[in-house]
Design brief:
Layout lengths: L5 H11 L1 E4 L2 E4 L3 H8 L7 H10 L4 H7 L32 H8 L1
Antiparallel strand pairs: 1-2
Protein name: Ribosomal protein L30 ferredoxin-like fold domain-containing protein
GO molecular function, one term: RNA binding
Length: about 110
C-alpha cells in the first residue's frame, strides 16, 4: 500500500491548509498560530506539522484535530463518477502507487 509522500503532504498543507482555532477556520499564515496551539507537543512550525502528518508521528491525532479538512478540486477528466474500483477501471478505492498523482491533480 502506498501513502502520500512528503511533497504531496507539503503541497496540500501550503495550498489548502486551514487551522481550527477556537472553533474558527484560520489561515496558517505564520508559525505563531501553530506554536500557540501545538507548541505543548513540540510542534512549532509548518514543517513540523508536515512531518507529523507524513510520518504519522506520536502527535498525529492532535495535528489532524488542529487542521481543517482539505477542500479538494475535482480533477478534470480524471474522475468519471463510476462506482467501480480503481483497480478494475473505476474511480473509487485504493490508488496505491498513483495516489500522489491524484493528489496533485486535485490540489
Amino acid at each position: 500500500m502506498q501513502y502520500p509522500n512528503l511533497k504531496s503532504v507539503k503541497d496540500l498543507i501550503y495550498k489548502k491548509g486551514l487551522a481550527k482555532v477556537e472553533k474558527q477556520r484560520v489561515s496558517m499564515t505564520g508559525n505563531n498560530i501553530i506554536e500557540q496551539e501545538l507548541g505543548k507537543y513540540g510542534i512549532l512550525c509548518i514543517e513540523d506539522v508536515e512531518n507529523e502528518i507524513a510520518t504519522v508521528g506520536p502527535h498525529f491525532k492532535e495535528v489532524t484535530g488542529f487542521l481543517c479538512p482539505f477542500s479538494l478540486n475535482r480533477p478534470e477528466k480524471a474522475l468519471h463518477g463510476k462506482k467501480k474500483l480503481y483497480e478494475h477501471g473505476g474511480d473509487s478505492g485504493n490508488y496505491k502507487d498513483h495516489i500522489n498523482e491524484l493528489i496533485s491533480k486535485m490540489n
